[in-house]
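Protein entry
_____________
===
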Amino acid sequence: MINTGTTIVTFLMVFLIQNTQNRDTEAMQLKLDELIRATRGAHNRLMDLEEREEGELDRLREEYERLARHSRRDGEPPQR
């Protein structure tokens, strides 16, 4: 009886924690989307990255890694 009760309470706590983390993550994504939208020069295509396919994320990561390497080397990012 005690083991069953403990298992149920543990399951409910895990569900509650996961639900809270999901809400926090969603709120953070919305805030980041708003910052991207409101920042001049920012690319709106970055606003929904969490919905993109893995291949597209890989291409974007490679592009930004290339920009970072160029910036470290020359101090200025290349033109797109």
User: Anything to note?
Assistant: The chain has two domains: 1-47, 51-80.
